Amino acid sequence: MTVSQIDEEVAKLLELKVQLGGDESRHQFTLKTAKGTRDYNPKQMAIREKVFNTIISCFKRHGAENIDTPVFELKETLTGKYGEDSKYDLTVSFKPTVLDPTPSQVPFARYLAMNKVTNIKRYHIAKVYRRDNPAMTRGRYREFYQCDFDIAGQYDPMIPDAECLKIVHEILSELELGDFRIKVNDRRILDGMFAVCGVPDDKFRTICSTVDKLDKMSWEDVRSEMVKEKGLSEEAADQIGQYVSLQGGMDLAERLLQDAKMSQSKQACAGLTDMKQLFSYLQLFQVTDKVVFDLSLARGLDYYTGVIYEAILTQTGPVPVAAAQNGAGEKAEEGVSVGSVAGGGRYDGLVGMFDPKGRKVPCVGVSIGIERVFSIMEQKAEASAEKVRTTETQVMVASAQKNLLEERLRLTAELWNAGIKAEVMYKKNPKLLSQLQHCEDSGIPLVAILGEQELKDGVVKLRTVHSREEIDVSRAKLVEEIKRRTLDV
Length: 489
What we know:
Distance between the termini: 52 Å
Radius of gyration: 29 Å
Structural class: alpha+beta
């Protein structure tokens, strides 16, 4: 480019600056993330990575394979696969740059039908998007991760279902989020209950979606909605109220099998028999301390055909950091209930909806509410005095005297080539104190110190940061010694 061309381009930029209002326009612009999204600093990302590692480790421990599906689906794939009161607008849209969400079982079912897969145990973790209004204080975002585990295939009743519940129990226990409960129910039990309580067939789904609100509304409000808005008789609503207040375990399933009304429904009896079998497996898996059979659990999506479950935290905590950063204009609360952190169930008919010949592949799965888990883990980290490491560096290569940059770089390269996670300061002659302070601040456990004497003797002074103990290690044995001391890093 010639000088005259450069001058011409500069003139154009100056003219554009004047048109945009110069410096004043820049001052009027506020830098922020889009509503329902957020940035994550290194500390927050370290927490997220720990959570992902815990979850993926659990999935792999149970023999799951990993697959990936697109973040959006064709409109015709989505139409008609959800409940009447779905929270989602199911038309995939590319404006205004926000995609609508696809509940994870749908792309999985489409994947099975399209690829003629009849059995698989899979997990899938990926970012997805939703259009509805975010609730930042409850860990609900427009851009978020979905974290799913599913078992597809024809197996004996309740064995895969029990494993899904075991997985939820393991993950929530390992993450130490606090006390939790896993509610279980069965859509066949719900439908049978509605039938014996006098709910018309054409109102099953709409009444089910109202019952699903019992975790957020009082029974009085739910009853009012069923009667006044959904047109259900008061007598039927009151009978439903007697059942949805029941909670228990295998004993409740046995009692309901003897119930004068419930025993009249073959559908309910089939669900209750399976519920007894489920709890017998859960006892073997040693998770019945956290699992409760709860007749108020409904889960609104139409495609569930059998067991359904939802894990909730039974404690409250401070407002997540994200709310303070992004919730401008929202009233901050002293404590918030994070609520549901996992949910799922059996959906035996969904794959058949996509298969050209209607071939069914029974499926059961669970979704972990990963963003809500992140929010809780961030709260715990903020409340704790414990430092969160944001790197995995095992050793800092430092020097005690000047003019040793080349030696530091040479040793750093040796460590990298041996698979050691090492750092070096980007200065020719850094002060030793500055190098040691960086290790303190970053949580780096070891420092490999070079000096003129160490170079002559063929050794490296290896310093343990927290204890400040130092030993001379021969250059040939340095890698082995670092690995021995940092097995957990």
